[in-house]
From TrEMBL:
Organism of derivation: Neolecta irregularis (strain DAH-3)
GO BP term, pick one: methylation
Domain called Methyltransferase: residue spans: 4-135
A molecular function (GO) term: protein-lysine N-methyltransferase activity
Pfam families membership: Methyltransf_31
Name listed for the protein in its UniProt record: Protein-lysine N-methyltransferase efm4
Keywords of the record: Methyltransferase, Transferase
GO cellular component term of the entry, any: cytoplasm
Matches recorded under PANTHER family: EEF1A LYSINE METHYLTRANSFERASE 2 (PTHR12843:SF5), PROTEIN-LYSINE N-METHYLTRANSFERASE METTL10 (PTHR12843)
Top-rank lineage group of the source organism: Eukaryota
Amino acid sequence: MKDSEELSILDVGTGNGHLLLAIYDNGYTKCRLIGTDISPVSIELSQAIAKARGISSVIFRQQDLIKEAGNEQYRLVLDKGTFDAISLTDELRDGRRLNKIYAANIHNILSDDGIFLITSCNWTKKELIARFGDFGLEYHSEIKYPTYEFGGQKGQTITSVAFVKGKKNMI
Ligand SMILES: C[S@@+](CC[C@H](N)C(=O)[O-])C[C@H]1O[C@@H](n2cnc3c(N)ncnc32)[C@H](O)[C@@H]1O
């Protein structure tokens, strides 16, 4: 993905904004970099870190992706640990699990040529494909990490899967 003014990257549940600031440090200075988080404290912290580093072009704003997905669409949507955090609650909204609402909202904010890259410590690749597949997102690729072997089973502690919008209608 080439850095340009047309490129927009959203980091959902940005925490302290480190992922976006690392993207900026890697030369993505022309594109739109936006970090959102439900926590106002996270947003204040991200803004303070960016300000201390003299970076004014990265936007951080408070937003609950379950409540308000907004109308804007992004070419790259990043999630590192946010779906994991949302999946920890059994809370229902309109009878639906929050992580299902989240998956539907991710589909809505992703541009037609967009990529959703999720990094999870709690969900396997297979589980992520099944959950996001239900909401119109198709497996694209994955990041390969070193694997460990225990009791004859191979595994990894972290999973990063990229999705694109599929042709199937979302639920
Ligand atoms: C495990 S932390 C990951 C933070 C960051 N992505 C990182 O890699 O360090 C999960 C983040 O998701 C945020 N979060 C939880 N629910 C959210 C929601 N509904 N909308 C937006 N952010 C949310 C939390 O406030 C928290 O900052």
